[in-house]
Amino acid sequence: MAALKIKKGSTSHSAYNLRPNFSDEIETHTLAVLVDNEPGVLARVIGLFSGRGYNIESLTVAEVDHTGKLSRITIVTTGTPQVIEQIKAQLGRIVPVHDVHDLTVEGPAVERELALFKVTGSGDKRVEALRLADIFRANAVDSTLESFVFELTGAPEKIDAFAELMRPLGLVEVARTGVAALSRGAE
C-alpha cells in the first residue's frame, strides 16, 4: 500500500475540509419565501429571526395564490454568508414553508418599493421639493398650502436618495412598503 505524502506548507486540501470558504463580510440578501396562508405562519417565520438575533431590513407579505392559499414573504436581511445559509436552512425546516429562494444569489432580480414622503415648507424650499420630485418621477398625491405628500416607486436606493435630498427641504414623515422582488427571466 502506498502512503500519501504531503509536503510541509502544501496547499493541498484535506478530504475532511469540505466546508466551503465563507467570508466574515456582512452581505444583504433578498429572500422570497412561499408559505401556506394560514394564521401564525408569519409569526413563526419572524420568530426564527428574532429568536436567533437576525435582523430584518425589509418585510412584505401578501397572498399570491388565492385558490392554493399561498402567500409570499419577501425578506431583506443582512449577515455573513454563514448566517444567510443558516437562515435559509432554518426557514426551509418550518412546516408551512414550501420554497425558499435567495434572489440575491439565484441571478438577476427586480426589486421595487413604494414610499410616501410628507414634505412641509414654503417659498424656495417648496419649489425645490417640486423640482426634485419631478426629476425622481415622484407623484404629488396630496397638496396643501403648507405641505406635499409625494409617492415614489423604485429601487430601495432610489427611495433612500430621494429621502436624503428631501430632508433639508422639510421632510417630516416617510412611509415605506418594503421590498417586493421577483427574479428576472422565464423561471
TrEMBL record:
GO function term, MF aspect, one: acetolactate synthase regulator activity
EC numbers, comma separated: 2.2.1.6
Catalysed conversion reaction: 2 pyruvate + H(+) = (2S)-2-acetolactate + CO2
SUPFAM superfamilies recorded: ACT-like (SSF55021)
Highest taxon in the source lineage: Bacteria
Keywords per UniProt: Amino-acid biosynthesis, Branched-chain amino acid biosynthesis, Transferase
Signal peptide bounds: none
Record domain ACT: where: 30-105
Regions crossing the membrane: none
GO CC annotation terms, alphabetical: cytosol
One Pfam family named in its UniProt record: ACT_AHAS_ss
Biological processes per GO annotation: isoleucine biosynthetic process; L-valine biosynthetic process
Pathway(s) of this molecule: Amino-acid biosynthesis; L-valine biosynthesis; L-valine from pyruvate: step 1/4; Amino-acid biosynthesis; L-isoleucine biosynthesis; L-isoleucine from 2-oxobutanoate: step 1/4
Similarity remark: Belongs to the acetolactate synthase small subunit family.
Function: Catalyzes the conversion of 2 pyruvate molecules into acetolactate in the first common step of the biosynthetic pathway of the branched-amino acids such as leucine, isoleucine, and valine.
Subunit structure: Dimer of large and small chains.
Protein name from the UniProt record: Acetolactate synthase small subunit
Gene name linked to the record: ilvH
